[in-house]
Amino acid sequence: MAPLSSSSSAFVFLTLWALLISPAVSLTCSSQTFTKNQVYSNCLDLPSLSSYLHFSYNSSNTTLSVAFVATPSKSGGWVSWAINPTATGMSGSQSLVAYKNSSTGVAVAQTYDVSSYNSIVAKDLSFEVWDKTAETRTDGSLAIFAKIKVPADLAAKGKINQVWQVGPGVADGGLEKHDFATANLQSKGTLDLNSGQSTGSSGGDSRVKKKNIHGILNAVSWGILFPLGGMIARYIRTFESADPAWFYLHVFCQISAYAIGVAGWGTGLKLGSESSGITYSGHRNIGIALFVLATVQIFALFLRPKKEHKYRVYWNIYHHSFGYAIIILGIINVFKGYDILKPEHKWKAAYIIVIIVLGAISLLLEAITWVVVLKRKSDKSTKPYDGYNNGEGRQQPLAM
After folding, report:
1. Is 235 left (phi over 0), alpha (psi -120 to 50) or beta?
2. What is the model's pTM?
3. Peptide bond before 227: cis, by omega within 30 degrees of 0?
């Protein structure tokens, strides 16, 4: 076999290089084609969820022809492109939805009226739609095709609010709830029918920012400061030289945690009021319980009996029980928040590392505390206060 010439070698190299980069190139709307060779005058690489919109608009009869391409979040899931005639979010949108028929495996297109997050009904839209079809693409994505009669008021403006989304599955014709990660919340914008340009919605960015603030405030307060304050009360008080500094550190840490936690709780209430139909019952209920427990703890500080008071022991039991409950529920709810917010993995990993470090320090201090207490006992030296009877009662060296 004759050796390849230099020009032939270069041709082979360029061919291989083109084949290698072709998958990346195909991830733009300009390189996408359809089985029926539909052609549109405009195409957009939408800014989230790896989605693409092809469209043509005839202003003389206000007809919008669209092809929307996206990949469901899970196999057997759905994709959707919608026009919202009155707002910028999903609630109130008039949606085109595509998914694979579970029996035939053939992609189908349906129309859904999303009057609210609690009411997503397969029905005709508030404007005329025809020629709606769907197809499965070789890369696993789905495409929706349709022609739409743009309502007169929107046609006069020349702009529409578009919303797109991907979901995990379809059950009995009902769409399973999509994720509420950053990309899902940002999947909306304004489409200029005449210029063919699309602009993102600042509302999505604002909402994501509020969720991030909510998450940071609560992770710092309930997830870090409250456990740290508990550690100070449980371990540092054992050392006589730390008295009364440990008490003031404990109070400062817990009051700071409460103030930050209330701010985080308030942002959660605000997010809830702006998210009609979206409810995270477990996260919300634990948050309410934490707020109530922590509020009682703070106000109980002003009702604390003196050390020699006969009721001080009961106050201690209540105070310690509520404190441990706050720490446990706080950490649990932080992880629930991570599951809802779905931030980059590094943020959850960082919090896990913080909890592991605090846990390791607690184990070390636990051992040291017992050594100190047992040594004092054997030497019959002064015992640390247990909070009642001037330290003459039963010893509780490890109480918060």
Report:
1. alpha
2. 0.51
3. no
